[in-house]
Amino acid sequence: MHAAKHGNVAAVHELLAAGADPSAEDSGAAGSAGGHTPLFYAAKHSGSAGVGRALLGAGASEELLLSAGADVDAANTKGETPLAYAAFHGQPAAAAVLLGAGASTAPRSRNDSSVAHLAAASGSRAVAALLLQAGAELDPLDDMGVTRLWVAADEAGAGKEGSAEVGVVLCQRGADLSVTDDLGHTVLMRACCGGDACLGLTTQLVEHGADVNAVTSYGSTALMFACQSGCLPAVEALLAAGADPTPADQYGGDALIAACSEGHTHLVAPLLAAGCDADASDEWGCTPAYLAAAAGDADAVARLLAAGASSSPANINGQTPLHVASQEGRDDVVEVLLGARGVSVNARDVSSYTPLYMAVSRQHTPVVARLLAARADPTIANEHGETPIHFAAQNGEEDVLGMLLAAPGAAALAAARGGTLAGTPLHFAAEHGRLGAVRALLGVDPSAGAVRDAVGRLPLDLALWKAHREVAWELLLRGDLPRHAAPLLRSLGAWGRLAWPLYPLLVSRVALTPEQWAAAVPGGLPGMGHALPAVLARSPAEARCLLRRLAPAQQCISIQSMYCLSTPAPCLVGSN
């Protein structure tokens, strides 16, 4: 058994000479079939024909073969014979040896697959031809009720190498072309699934009279399968043979929708010429124009529009071709659609998203520019109250943000609240650390820095929470701040030592109470003396509080610097 499994011809000869049983059976591994004789393994592996000949006594006398006792039709526990193994594994040399020794082509496995079915599944044209020459039945049915031609076409459609050639042989021998599975798939349909790789089989089936207008139980035709595979010659062959391009399947999709849904927009022209409806739609409301726009084929979209397709049909989600083209960044498609009659540049889907919002959310800058030039409105909010400006700020798209804010009426949105937590675009930019966007928004409206979201957070709070120190500095430096310092001090205090460089800027811009100076401002912080002029200008009492938070040396240095003194200045700490 071991010698046969590994193709060791010399060892097989020696073992047979020593009286080894050529029909001994294994027990099978756990979960697999048992009852394999050495012939099974000789039939399974390429290069094992020598083992098969040794076991069968090929080239010796009939008496030697009989005396060796090899059974060419011994079946394993699944009902498979050595010839079935050779057929399934595509081994023509082993099959020839077995057939020469009288192996039967009739036995079937437990799933009722014949040797011929297994040969069709293997994709071996040579094995299939050998079996036909040996008298194998041409159209046996397996337990699924399909023939080996159907199996060959199915395997070919799934990409199994060699199966299409097997199908051609069977077709030329007169195999039944009308067999279907329980869903109504014909041999032609299964072949059409294989596209260019199955073109030879597809054309053979058409030439031999296969029904080009057969329909599955769910309404699909061979032409639809060919369109899904994108094979132009197959589509042309089917149309030339009388295939009807107009039927729709149970989901409402016809051949044109089938082609466009898979991105095979090169089929649009021949299908329109054959009579397909340019404005058909499936049950989801998707039209050929929508699907071609998603595929990014501007020429196909233009061809469909010229054939009468609507420029703004909405699917069940309310999205138009312009939505999907903008979302996918198809600038050339957007250009075609914007030039079409009746297009709505500000169409809203069921969630109130516009094409502009789609382009901004995916960071497609050229599309954004084109939509704005066509007067797309950046102030339209989605169902959550978010505008395209919110998303541009969140993504840090400085160029896009600049274009949006320059649009009529858009600058006012820099401080407008939106989203589930009612944040401004500045909140979005601060939380995500988008320094450039923060600068752009503050440049348009500094008051946005003092706006709180639904839970009371400032943009500065979000910047500190996410440890975006540069953004926090920018907000403290340029943004409007609340009159009361308590929430800002809490935020800086929660950040610990990392926030120390921000205290001088904070105290120079926001008034603190004596209690806040004493409890919330750490003592001896570097750079605090630089805030003294601004604090003194605001309140001498606060200036005294600040000096108390400085180290003695810092106190004198700060006063000297402020008054341009060259001698030690009197210390104000403790004075009234």
UniProtKB/TrEMBL annotation:
* Keyword Ion transport recorded: no
Q: Where are the ANK repeats?
A: 1-27, 78-110, 111-143, 183-217, 218-250, 251-283, 284-316, 317-350, 351-383, 384-405
Q: Which InterPro entries match?
A: Ankyrin_rpt, Ankyrin_rpt-contain_sf
Recite the UniProt keywords alphabetically. Answer: ANK repeat, Repeat
Q: In terms of domain of life, where is this protein from?
A: Eukaryota
* Pfam families for this protein: Ank, Ank_2, Ank_4
Protein name from the UniProt record = Ankyrin repeat
